[in-house]
Amino acid sequence: MSSLYHPTVARLTYRALLGPRRALLLATLPVLLIVIAVAVRALTGADDATADGILGGFALATMVPLIGVIAGTGAISPEIDDGSVIYLLAKPVKRPTIIFTKLIVAIGVTVTFSAVPTYLAGLILNGDSQRMATAYTVAAAAASVAYSAIFLLLGTVTRHAVVAGLVYALVWESVFGNLVAGARTLSVQQWALSLAQRIAGGDQVTSEVALPTAVVLLTTVTCAATWYAGRKLRSLTVAGEE
């Protein structure tokens, strides 16, 4: 692990991701989720179907991928855009180590700003009835890992990573992933929901993807995206390397 994780790269990435402006963006949706949970609980009382709708329809389908976009692309895309990544690449740090370290930081930030508020919202909505809060928290954490890898990869392959990430998150995951039957199989949201379905009691939480398939796809996509991001970073050169 020590050869894959570099503390200085991690510190610089955390500083970039948790600056005042980006931290405000990261906190907006979690705060909105908690406010919605408090308001709904106050107005309607504890209800499993309502909790499922908010945790699945807003937290997992919208909040988690959008936070993944901010954290995943923000971990590397700004450095590539402004050229400062050249100074990082000039240091005696292996490029796979840079990518892996940034992925770990992006995962940590995404989990903190998505899984933690999802659990709090679940507790507020129905007190973890049918283990719904726990199930959606695990799903949000698993989805955070995959989204971080996907959006980190986007940050290395395009200068329009945020736009591409938003299109993916809002169009593919939120629209096609919910409404188009064939697309659900290729949706991170549905893979994560498969984990939630196994953990939750009752039949409120459902997924279109079987659990073994979901685990394989989550693992494969995360590993493949991380590997290819490392390969793309290797293709970047600094002055004097050519």
UniProtKB/TrEMBL annotation:
The keyword Zinc-finger does not apply. Keywords: Membrane, Transmembrane, Transmembrane helix. It comes from the Bacteria. The keyword Metal-binding does not apply. This is ABC transporter permease subunit. The chain crosses the membrane at residues 23-42, 54-76, 97-121, 133-154, 161-181, 209-229.
